Amino acid sequence: MRALDAGLLLCHECHQLNPQDADVEHGQTCSRCGAQVHPRRPNSLTRTWALLLTSALLYIPANLLPIMSVSSFGKGHPDTIMSGVVTLVQYGMLPIAAVVFIASIVVPTFKLVGIALLLYSVQRHQPMSARQRILMYRFIEWIGRWSMLDIFVIAILVALVNFGSLAQIEAGVGAVAFASVVILTMLAAVTFDPRLIWDNTESDADHD
Questions:
Q1: Which of 51, 13, 18 is CA-nearest to residue 181?
Q2: 75 and 112, same domain (yes or no)
Q3: Mean pLDDT of successive 10-residue segments in the chain (208 residues)?
Q4: Are 35 and 134 within one domain?
Q5: How many domains is the chain partitioned into structurally?
Q6: Which residues constitute the domain of residue 8?
Q7: Among 66, 126, 164, 172, which has the minimal tally of Cβ within 10 Å of its Cβ?
Q8: Of 84, 89, 86, 92, residue with least CA distance to 154
């Protein structure tokens, strides 16, 4: 049974359970902190789609524009994410190249596709169990904390690898676009209300 079926509303600010008023549609506040409470987050799907589509559009320049420039002995050129991975491999920085590839290519792509699948399956009532959906949602939330890892790596490299004409690494404009993608996908995961997963689950087998 859902909390909503029992007449309870969860406050998103202090997580207090509040008995549902008869006129909840006209507004209800939390009995403990006074914040506005709703049966479900207002316009959750619309906001999540807007953030997701914006991040998908920004993901294009994030991959096409230079994210960093690696120069050695005065020679170097700007690199995109993929060419930067190749450059790091050529300089023997295999662990850093793996981190940049996973954090910049694998994780953002999985988050974009995963959130889109969640939204589509919830809206279209696709044959996907609620348990599968919630596991996907929890995994997307978990990997979100690692999304900025490669930006931190680039920032550290810019600060440490600065030896003038011998070796130097500089951040590119693509890093700004990629950081925007990461932030927007994290916000998309936050604005999505996971309780919607259970609302449109019609099969009792999903609750076994």
A1: 51
A2: yes
A3: 61 74 68 73 87 94 83 70 82 82 85 89 74 84 73 70 62 83 88 77 44
A4: no
A5: 2
A6: 1-39
A7: 164
A8: 84
Please, which residues bridge with residue 28 across strands?
A: 37
Residues 25, 53, single domain; the answer is no
| 62 and 34 in a common domain | no
Report the alpha-carbon distance of residue 84 to residue 97 in Å, rounded.
8
- Which of 177, 162, 5 has the alpha carbon at shortest distance from 72? 162
Its pTM stands at 0.72
The confidence score (pLDDT) of residue 121 equals 83
Q: How far is CA 87 from the centre of its chain?
A: 27
pLDDT value at position 76?
A: 65
Beta strands in 12-100 (DSSP E): 17-19, 28-29, 36-37, 68-72, 75-79
Task: Determine the pLDDT at residue 57.
Answer: 95
Residues 4 and 78 in one domain: no
What's the pLDDT score for residue 31? 74
Pairing relation of β-strands 167-171 and 17-19?
unpaired
**3-state secondary structure at position 66:** coil
Rounded Cα distance, 61 and 65, in Å:
5
